[in-house]
Amino acid sequence: MSAAAVEHPCDGQPESQLETADSIMEQLPGYRVEIIGGVITVAPPPDGNHASVLTDVMIPFLAVGMHGQESRVLQNVGLWLPSGQEDFAIPDLAVVDADFEDHLMQYNCYDPVVFRLVLEVTSSNYQQDLRNKVTAYAEAKIPVYVIVDRKHNRLHVLTDPVAGDYTNHRLHAPGEQVILPESIGAEVKLDVSAVLRAGETKKADGHEKTT
Questions:
Q1: Does the model's pTM come out above 0.90?
Q2: What does the pLDDT average to over 64-90?
Q3: In terms of Cα–Cα distance, which of 75, 114, 107, 73 is closest to 88?
Q4: b or e along 9-40 (b: 16 or more beta carbons within 10 Å of the residue's beta carbon)?
C-alpha cells in the first residue's frame, strides 16, 4: 500500500504515537495507519485489484483447512512489533494460531508468537513491504513472510528470520507453482501467474498494466 510518514505536533505536551495514530484514523477513516521502526505511516484504501489478490490468495489456504480449529486465516489483523514501544503493523493477510484471541497485547494487536505467516500485496510504495516490513517481521520472528510484488511481477517467499532479516529469500516468477513451508500447518500451493494476474490494473483503453 502507498504510505506516507507523519510528523508529530510540536505544541504543548507531545502526545504518544498511538494517540497520534488514533487521531489520524479519526480524520481519515478507511486509511491504514501503522507504526514501524518508530515511524507512523498512513496508507490510503487499496485499489480493487489489491483486494482481488487477497481473495484469490486466500482460496488455497481455505482449501486445505487452514481456517479451522488449529489455525485461522485473517485479513488486516493487528500485529504488535518488538521493534519499538508503540510499534505495530497490519499485514494484508495472516495465518495465526486458532487461539490468537488469548494473546491480545494492546491496541487491538496480537503477540507475534501466534503468527505463522504474514502476506503483503504491494501498491505504489512497494519499498515499505520490500524493506521496512522485512526488518520488522524478521525482528518479530514471523516464520514466513510472503510478498505479492505487483511492481516487479514476482512473488517473494522469506523464511528463517534471524537478527532483523530473513536468511532465506526466494523469488518466484509467473509460471511457477510455489509450495509454502509446511511449518504453517498444511501444504499450501500458490500459482504465481494466477496470483499476479489478479493484481493487474487496467488502463482506460483496456490494456493491462501491473501496479
A1: no
A2: 95
A3: 107
A4: eeeeeeeebbebbeeeeeeeeeebbbbbeeeb
> Torsion angle of alpha carbons 195, 60, 100, 158, nearest 10°?
-50
CB 96 within 8 A of CB 104: no
Sheet arrangement for strand 88-89: 4-5, 39-43, 32-36, 88-89, 78-80, 109-110, 104-106
Check residues 30 and 2 and name the one with the higher pLDDT: 30
Handedness of CA 155, 159, 161, 167 (dihedral sign): negative
Strands 115-121 and 144-149 come out as parallel
Q: In this predicted model, what pLDDT tens digit does every residue of 104-124 receive, in sequence order?
A: 999 999 999 999 999 999 987
Q: Which residues pair with 165 in a beta bridge?
A: 162
